[in-house]
Amino acid sequence: METGEEFGPWLARQLKLAGKTQAELAKELGLTRAAVSAWIAGRSTPRPTVMTDIANALGTDVGTVHTRTTDTQAGLPVTWYHRPGYPDGGRDLGNAAAFAFDADVQVLARETCQNSLDERLTENGRPVRVRYTLHELTGEHLEAFREAILWNELFPHYSAVSELAGTQKVGRVVDAGVRDMYEKGRLILLRVDDYNASGLTGDDYEDGKFAAVVRRQLESLKSGTAAGGSYGLGKATLWATSALGLVLINSTLSVPHEGRTERRMIGRLELPWREVDGLTCAGPAWLGRPDPNSPRGEVTRSWWAEEETVARLHLSRESDEPGTSFLIVGAHDVASLEEEDSYDQDMKPRAEEGPEDARDISRMHARLVEALGRDFWAAMIGGGGRLPLLEVSVRALRNGEVVVPEKKVDPSVEQPSRTRALRAHYEGTTVERLTEAGQVASRNVPLKMPLAGGARGTLGTHQAVLLVTEAAGDKDTPKNRVHSLRGNRMTVRKAPVSNLPIGTNPFQAVLLIGEAAGESAPFAKEAEEFLRAAEPPEHDRWGQTEELTLRWSPSAYRRIQNLTTEINSAVRELVARPKRGRGEGGEALRKALTVKSRPKAKVPSGPVVPELDTLEATIGDQGEWLITAEVKIPRGDEIVPMVPIAQLDVRSGGRPRLDWAELVAVEGCEVQDGTLRFPPGTRRAKFRGATDASSHPVRTTLTRLVVELRAGKGA
User: Fold this and answer.
1) Which alpha helices (H) appear in 289-387, and where do they start and end?
2) What residues does 496 pair with on adjacent strands?
3) pLDDT at 226 over 50
4) Is 348 helix (H, G, I), strand (E, B) or coil?
């Protein structure tokens, strides 16, 4: 049974909810006002017989008064509160934080799973369990859910937003979400549950995790130094993934609030400015119980819901273990359609697959599994006395019936080579150099920590751990890459290794840095703090950031560039094949053997298109991008000329194109009027380039570079 709230605070809140004074309750009970005041102050408690009279006065049952694990139902009903429009006439046409991310379930998986890892309860040593549930509602199930979220109260607001859809981006998304629900008679719910996590603790309004997630923007209250998040933006992916801008929340707390822990409920709606029935609304709205302490009792706060209410909202949790459930209403995965645009022409045509659908729960299920296995494989691995930090699964339902069975993400399936490497490190079975199949080589790589505050010099050297093993069993995973991760073991950076020796066997590499290298490693905490500051909101790379500049120096990012150089050098050394002497390997035996050679493969007769294989980029002294690129070329008797294109990566819209100040052939090609031309029979080529800094629309240190090869003249 839950721990009930103290009688005094509970009774005081029930009186406010019921709109009664202490004197009015005393009169109904036939007692003095002083007696009621003593109860509320905690100086005394009522006799059992009086408890029955209190229950009657509050319109509830005596059990509720005795246990005090929920509010009475005599008070103000659960409803929606819409923030009033600003008195100065200002308008917010959407939550800017949501534009930091795409409407992409893979981005959602990365951000929400990272947050769950950061909030894991560490005292018991158990992993945090995260479950993703896709649930499609139709027919009577959809109608019942709409009734539970008070859809009739919300519909006028959605209608007002739809009227502005032609001129407003968020309005167009919301309008499309509402139309899809009505025209196709369906609604997609995407639920994220975590267990063995802290839950949304703290007051509704004061500093705490609840207020940081539900009430505020750009506030991050993470529990440890190894946390992945730091911007307070990750929670915005929940609302960005909802075409209706609606998320419902049910939290079980690790620390009691108001004397209880289970079924703390709240809903938040993110819509643009709108006008409904002559009243303007600023944007967000909250589903909750009216707070009697707010002006005119209009503002809603979280409430302690009954199990029946939680079930109607599809937010029932499987146990009383602490953690939070987020329900994304109207989930869609627009980014999945971009993959269809690059569909392989050798595969069957799109028309045979059916229409594109950003709300296909089977496709969303597959993309969630892929993203979780790619970004969190290391957190799911244990060994050598270390326990996994994370367990995660994905399932899909339709009206409560299983569509895709629950799939537990298995790192040994999603990332077999890297899983083998990390387990070997934990179990102490690594080697200094790869000599046999299945081995894992280990090497320390230095990160020289700068002094804070812009001071010159080095604080000390942190030794990261580099693991390299052959790429065996990795089906669709890109080879010859390094996955870098910090203390929470989420993959931060995925980078190819350049300038590999010809004939290098495919490999996979892992870099453990910060507390991932071991909490006892020198300067582990300092490295965590430094690298965390070097991550953008997406937490997918390390480089120049404003925080890094302010806390360390404008040149601090060069320490990361030096680290990258050390990593690539160490990998090349570990994967290089040792040269053999003429007398090695049984020369006499080889001469005695007759080996039947395979017939030569037929060279394609048509033109072949070169592909960009590896790319290294740094920022020059004049703010230009300096690149060195390698190109691989299929076998063929005619090679298509290619034009290198430099662009800036952006989150939305077209990519700004940069001009080349210099484009130089290094080997296997020649440059003519900005076009790369390749002699017949060439299999690999290399070129260098420098962009024109005057063509950059923003400071180079704040950008990401994209380089493409496009078919040139005469193709």
Assistant:
1) 307-312, 336-341, 361-375
2) 481
3) no
4) coil
Judge contact between 282 and 273, C-beta under 8 A. Answer: yes
Q: Above 70 in pLDDT, residue 127?
A: yes
Q: Residue 82 forms beta bridges with which residues?
A: 285
Distance CA 157, CA 161 (A): 6
In Å, what is the CA distance from 407 to each residue of 74, 131, 241, 367? 44, 10, 22, 12
pLDDT at 540: 81
Q: For residue 139, give both structure tokens.
A: 């027919």
Scanning the structure block, which residue is given the tokens 């094949």?
577
* Residue the block writes with tokens 């970004």: 375
Q: What is the pLDDT of residues 237-290, one digit of tens each?
A: 898 899 999 999 999 999 988 778 899 999 999 998 888 988 998 889 999 988
Q: Which residue is listed with tokens 């799973």? A: 113
Q: Of how many residues is the chain composed?
A: 715
Predicted structure pTM score = 0.72
Contact 106, 367 (CB under 8 A): yes
* Of the candidates 482, 576, 473, 495, the residue with the CA atom closest to the CA atom of residue 543: 495
Q: Which amino acid type is present at position 127? A: P
Per-residue pLDDT for 475 more than 80? no
Rounded to whole angstroms, the Cα distance separating 12 from 36 reads 10
Q: Give the integer Cα–Cα distance in Å for 359 and 366.
A: 13
Residue keyed to tokens 């607001």: 157
**Cβ atoms of 485 and 372 closer than 8 Å:** no
Give the pair of three-digit tokens for residue 143: 């109608």
Q: How far apart are CA 664 and CA 63, in angstroms?
A: 82
How many CB atoms neighbour CB 147 within 10 A? 11
Q: How far apart are CA 471 and CA 484, in angstroms?
A: 17
**What are the distances in angstroms from CA 683 to CA 237, 419, 502?**
43, 33, 11
Res 481: pLDDT: 92
CA–CA separation, 147 vs 329, rounded Å? 14
Confidence (pLDDT) at 219? 59
